[in-house]
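ingest -> fold -> write
write: protein_1
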Amino acid sequence: MKCTKLKSGLALLLCLCWTSAMAATQPPRAAPAMPTGDADVAHNNLIVRIDPKYPPQAARDGLNGWVMLSYTITENGSVSDISVLDSSPERVFDREARRALSKWKYKPVIKQGKPQAVPGVMVLLEFALAD
């Protein structure tokens, strides 16, 4: 009886390990398309863009991926209210993407002669190892 339980437990453990290994080696989901209005505002007013650092563990594991973020361009051109909308693989690149985006600077958006905050801007940051 003990031998049978041990064998079935071992088989379950091997199955779970194999499933986890397969999930870790799957390619990231395709990155979603970005709305063009946000891209225009962000591209036309961007002054400083800091690229995210590649997480060391992701580099060792050979992982590529992307992070879609939402944020606000403040009246003075800094970035606030950063949130991760989606990412693939999940949570692998999120921290570095947020850290880099927080350092971006924009020329303030002027409407009717006054600087205006621009909420809900979205950006897609992609992470790919060089071949």
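write: protein_2
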Amino acid sequence: MTALEIASLVVEVISWIALGTGLVILACAGVFRLVDGSWEPVDLVVVDGDGGASARWFAEDEFWDRSLKPAERERVDDAEEHRAFFRRGDAGRMRFERVHPGLKVTGMLGFVLTGVGVLALIASFVLLFLH
């Protein structure tokens, strides 16, 4: 086998693995996004009380209140008002980012692997015509 044939074989294997894996991960990210639902912005107020800090916000014509987790409390600074997001249809669920960090990582990994697969596929075609 010549070096060109070996390179062609390696690039072909990389293209199939990266494309297949990337497209499956992108499909999973799409399903995760659908399950996660829509999150709408809301202004919330952080109130320090006897039981710890709590967040209060008004959404979907109702007043909502829940205590902050320690990690959330560390995230908010000394200001009382903050931007948060509530889930449409379930305004009692609140978080500080619109898109879940795990969903961001899954989507980015899917895009990177798919991009590598497409580049390897193009390189495979180029090597095919050079052969």
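write: annotation protein_2
The longest helix spans residues 3-36.
The chain has two domains: 3-35+101-130, 37-95.
pipeline exit 0
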